[in-house]
Amino acid sequence: MQKYSIGSKVVHSPEGVCVVEAVCRMKLDGEEREMYKLRSTIEPEKLVYIPVDSAIMKLRLLKSRQEVLHLLQLEPEDRTFLAQNTMKREKLQNQAIYGDDTSSIMKLLKLYTNKSRIKTLSILEKTWMKKAEQYLYSEIAEVLECEYTALINSHYGIAC
Question: Which of 10, 122, 139, 141 has the lowest CB atom count within 10 Å?
Answer without folding.
Answer: 122
